[in-house]
Specification:
Strand content: under 5%
Low-confidence stretches: 114-127
Order of helices and strands: HHHH
Helix content: over 70%
Number of helices: 4
Shape: elongated
Distance between the termini: 35 Å
Structural class: mainly alpha
Radius of gyration: 24 Å
């Protein structure tokens, strides 16, 4: 589906509809994998008896979690988070553009942290952020996200 969205011949409406299909299909795929894991655990614990069935099932679930969770964290979570960041950037850009149009936002945009903040009572704003272009803001946002990821990794 991602390849369909990336095609230049599809319009914005088609891209939106294809993206809307991703969540329900993901849910169905998740249920299918759950059934596959339950079937595998049932088959293994039905043939090998090292303990009671409940303890065997618990041990298999723990082993499964030790294998699946790190793979999910390394390969799936970054993709999902990247899409969420892109969605937020598109939303912020649309809000910024709306405020830049004459009569389109209706007023001044206030900084999130006003007087009395962490640096001795002054306004906490990035130098030059008030007059920055959307591209500069997106670039700064990407730098902050990379720095945040580096800090979390250390």
């Amino acid at each position: 589906l991602d390849k369909i969205v990336d095609l230049p011949c599809t319009g914005e409406a088609t891209d939106r509809e294809v993206r809307a299909l991703v969540a329900p299909l993901s849910l169905l795929i998740g249920f299918a994998w759950k059934q596959a894991f339950v079937g595998a655990i049932t088959a293994i614990t039905g043939q090998v008896h090292l303990s009671t069935p409940h303890v065997e099932t618990l041990c298999m679930a723990i082993v499964l979690a030790l294998v699946v969770v790190p793979a999910w964290r390394l390969y799936i979570l970054p993709v999902v988070m990247n899409e969420e960041v892109k969605k937020l950037e598109r939303k912020e850009l649309a809000t910024y553009e709306q405020h830049q149009q004459p009569g389109g936002g209706g007023g001044k945009v206030e900084p999130l942290l006003a007087a009395g903040g962490a640096n001795g009572g002054g306004k906490l704003t990035d130098a030059g952020a008030a007059g920055a272009s959307p591209e500069d803001l997106a670039r700064r946002n990407a730098q902050l996200l990379r720095r945040n990821a580096d800090l979390e990794a250390s």
